[in-house]
Specification:
The protein is an alpha/beta fold and 242 residues long. The chain has a single domain, classed as Rossmann fold (3-Layer(aba) Sandwich). The chain is built from nine helices and seven strands; from the N terminus they run αααβαβαββαβαααββ. It has helices at 11-22, 26-33, 37-46, 66-75, 87-99, 138-148, 168-188, 193-203, 208-216; strands spanning 56-60, 79-84, 106-110, 123-129, 149-160, 220-227, 232-238. The protein is globular. The model is unreliable at 1-8 (pLDDT under 50).
Length: 242
């Protein structure tokens, strides 16, 4: 798949700068532009970890920590770590955690998801919410997840998909191409962020193609769950004992 044209070079640097710029409106825009359905998607994703009861969880591309907070409330781990390349997003996340009195249970750190500062087999579960399509080297990121995950651990990835059902497909592309960038630009004051969102979703290898990449990275029992007529998908993979 081709990279989104506006970020064809220096993707990581540009993605970091973009999220730094829109951090102050990120949470509001997420809920507003998705009509609140993003909360349902996160809850559904976290349920995929319920039966393994992980005590140490890593949330990759954590942003302001919404996925991390959801996981903590649903799963009650001993500790949860979030990592992201955008320090501005993390600052808003830390303020959120302090306000919710969760800052002793959830730690947010700045770091590169494709070269993480963790030992092998450090976590029992990994979550990623709308982050993998932003990786500069997707396979490097997936292999890093496999490396830091413990045997019998699980990765759960929530990402936008491309619906194929009429008229959802047509409405989705119209909204993502025209309405969402316009509203995003007005509210966030950023000219590229929500144009990039549309381009990055189109470029992302979703469903069966992404499952193949998970398999290539070493994961087993891989599967996906389609959400909201294919607008988003949950991808699940396990790290089996050898």
């Amino acid at each position: 798949m081709a990279e989104p044209t506006i970020f064809a070079t220096d993707k990581k640097k540009n993605v970091r700068a973009m999220f730094d710029r829109i951090a102050f409106r990120y949470d509001f825009l997420n809920h507003f532009l998705s009509l609140g359905i993003d909360r349902y998607w996160r809850n559904k994703s976290v349920k995929q970890l319920k039966n393994i009861s992980p005590k140490k969880i890593l949330d990759i591309a954590t942003g302001t920590g919404d996925f991390a907070v959801c996981s903590f409330h649903k799963l009650h781990p001993e500790h949860l770590t979030g990592i992201d390349i955008s320090e501005e997003m993390l600052e808003f996340g830390r303020k959120k955690l302090k306000k919710k009195k969760l800052d002793n249970y959830i730690t947010l750190i700045t770091g590169d998801s494709e070269a993480m500062p963790f030992d092998d087999q450090s976590f029992e579960a990994i979550t990623v919410g709308f982050g993998v399509r932003n990786f500069e080297d997707l396979m490097a990121g997936l292999r890093e997840m496999f490396r830091v995950l413990q045997p019998n651990g699980r990765v759960v990835i929530l990402e936008f998909s491309k619906p194929g059902i009429f008229p959802v497909k047509q409405l989705y592309h119209f909204y993502f191409r025209f309405i969402l960038p316009l509203l995003g630009r007005i509210i966030s004051k950023d000219k590229t962020a929500y144009t990039y969102l549309h381009d990055s979703v189109l470029a992302f290898p979703d469903r069966d193609d992404f499952i193949k990449l998970l398999n290539d990275a070493g994961f087993s029992n891989t599967r996906f769950i389609s959400l909201s007529f294919g607008i988003a998908s949950i991808y699940v993979g396990d790290k089996m004992l050898k």
